[in-house]
Amino acid sequence: MIKKRAGLAALAVVGATAIALAGCSSNSSSGGDKSGSTNASGIVTTNGNEPQNPLIPSNTTEVGGGKIIDSIFEGLVSYDAKGKPVNEVAKSIDTDDSKTFDIKLNTNYTFTNGEKVTAESFTKAWDWAAKYSNKQSASYFFENIEGYDATKDSDLTGLKVVSDDEFTVTLKSAQSDFPLSLGYSAFVPLPSEFYKDTKAFGENPIGNGPYKLDGKGAWTHNQSIKLVTNKDYEGKRKPKNGGLTITFYTSQDTAYSDAQGGNLDVLDAVPDSAFATYKSDFPDSNVNQAAAIFQAIYLPYYLDHWKGEEGKLRREAISMAINRKQITDKIFDGTRTPAKDFTSPVIAGWNDDLEGSDVLTYDKSKAKELWAEADKISPYNDTLTVAYNADGGHQAWVTAVTNSISSTLGIKAEGKAYPTFAEALAVQTDNKLTGASRTGWQADYPSLYNFLGPTMGDGSSSNYSRYDSAEYNELLQKGRSAATVEEGNKYFDQAQELLFKDLPEIPLWYSNVTGVWNADNVSNVKFGWNSVPLYYDVEVKK
User: Fold this and answer.
1) What would the DSSP string read from start to end of 117-178?
2) What is the pTM of this model?
3) Residues 73-90: tens digit of each pLDDT
4) First CA to last CA across the chain, in angstroms?
5) DSSP letters spanning 63-95
6) DSSP structural state of residue 263
7) What are the φ/ψ torsions at residue 95 (nearest 5 degrees)?
8) pLDDT tens digit string along 420-439?
9) Alpha helical stretches, state H, 212-348
């Protein structure tokens, strides 16, 4: 989920809000008990951003909303800190051919309104999410289930309820990583209450996870959302605290200041202004570890100069005009690693020796040569802009990237800021970009395909460059339908080698999660494979 999540959707490494709400810190923020004893009813405070949409799992494909959905819902599986799937509502997931799956459920899960989680809680939710007229942004996650239709309403005929505690899933073609995907938020169950008024449900969702909303009105738009422990939750993510308050910051620097002042317990995105100091500011409570996050820029195919042979030449020139190592060293102070592919080193099967990856190497003379060849086809007299959301801490690196492009190619290049992530995303969704845009992907589930399919596959909701390659789509399908994940990864490698030729996205770097926490307030803080803190494990000090 990662969310984007998880299908997350373009990644927002989002900052926090300039509003320091009274009472937003943990109820031990006066300094904490140095004895180390904990308060199981204490509230953990953390940073986030206003969700783009109402909190309906299948329509929440960005990081801010995904963090909330993952806290209040429980799916068939969850992921441990390293991304390994762990059975939750699922008692077992069995298959003989990676095409038909028999799923048996544990019987101890209920929604917070008391309704039992059954097989139909899953099958009905999936069918609703996949239905064309419901226009859910994560509907493509169901595209391989029999009956799915991306052009008109249809039922998922591949879902069959055997009993309250068992159902089967039949796919159109074998999919080796299907069980891996089932921890993503689009696959969570929904209670019958959802179908009575989906709009109202999105404001006050009823889940079955470790946390629940702290009553109606717990979500104060553009400010915060308050979650409390679900006392009836019997899953493996049993909280060691009393709840979670997520404050929506519009500035990462403000969030960092709140953390320094003891008013924010856990911060999962250190601003670039603090990269050189966060370890000394929080000497015993900081993290800098690899995460399943990939960042890039892209040029949409609907713009002049960026399609056909001219577009290929210009994309390659732009890529080779970016000095990734210099930027990651100077701007990110070792918290980013220059990319060697389109996925992430933390995913099993990652390959750093793909043919064509030399296009990611800074080469000034070659970049200028390619740009000149493109100018012979059609002269470029525009200013190259790179769109980004100003609330996500992107300005410094966008400036560095555009300066690198400008000085290398001799053209004018500059950043184009949108105030919020939601506004920046809307421009991309509506095909209204006038130049390049930053983009990124935080894995929904630990699979190479999850980086390649949702962002560049034909028809995928996060394919904002509008890339459409029959050869690429065929390689993706062969990879998904392989007998094993390992065999499928070979096709995904071939797909990436094609991407190095077409460059629908221009890889920049992999992100580490750089986080800090207040050791006086909380302990046992861990960050997961996808950069999200394991909030349920956090202990609040008395």
Assistant:
1) P-HHHHHHHHHHHH-GGG--TTGGGGTTBTT--SSS----TTEEEEETTEEEEEBSS--TTH
2) 0.78
3) 999 999 999 888 999 999
4) 32
5) HHHHHHHHHH---SEEE-TTS-EEESSEEEEEE
6) S
7) -155, 150
8) 988 999 999 999 999 999 99
9) 252-260, 278-281, 308-320, 324-330
